[in-house]
Amino acid sequence: MKFLALALGILLMAMTAFAADVDGKWTGTMATPNGDVPVNFTFQADGATLNGSTTGPDGMEIKIANGKVDGSNISFSLTFDFGGMPFTLNYKGVVAKDQIHFTIDIFGMPLDLVVKRAS
């Protein structure tokens, strides 16, 4: 039993070592029909859980929901409030050294976004 516990502990440590380094601030620009919009994220991974936030169009902080880390893949949801109407965006991203390439699901249509690690 001790061997199984030790093996499981080593496996969990190895999985964490191979997890993407997503912690910190990330910035980019999203192209919209009304022009480019700056975007920023702050992320903190806790094992397989991703926590973080972004800034909404009104300048208020919006916490991410359902954040997950799986190796170099991350995913989460953001819900914006537009005049009492909630609008949820689902993000899936691949973390490279200094950038994250996101695909955002907007009503079933994919939108690409690349953010870079802020210095």
Overall 3D form: globular
Q: What is the fourth-level CATH superfamily?
A: Calycin beta-barrel core domain
Strand fraction: over 45%
Rounded mean pLDDT score: 83
**Count of discrete domains:** 1
Give the N-to-C terminal Cα separation: 46 Å
**Uncertain spans, ≥5 residues at pLDDT below 50?**
3-18
What is the CATH architecture assignment? Beta Barrel
What is the succession of H and E elements? Answer: HEEEEEEEEE
Enumerate how many helices there are, as a single number: 1
User: Order of strands across the widest beta sheet?
Assistant: 4-3-2-1-9-8-7-6-5
Structural class computed from helices and strand pairing: mainly beta
* SS elements, strand count: 9
The level of helicity is: 10-25%
- The radius of gyration over CA amounts to 16 Å
The CATH class designation is Mainly Beta
The main sheet comes to: 9 strands, antiparallel
CATH topology: Lipocalin
Short account of what is shown:
This protein is mostly beta strands and 119 residues long. The protein has one helix spanning 2-17, and strands at residues 24-32, 35-46, 49-55, 61-63, 65-70, 73-82, 85-95, 99-106, 109-117. Residues 3-18 have low confidence and may be disordered.
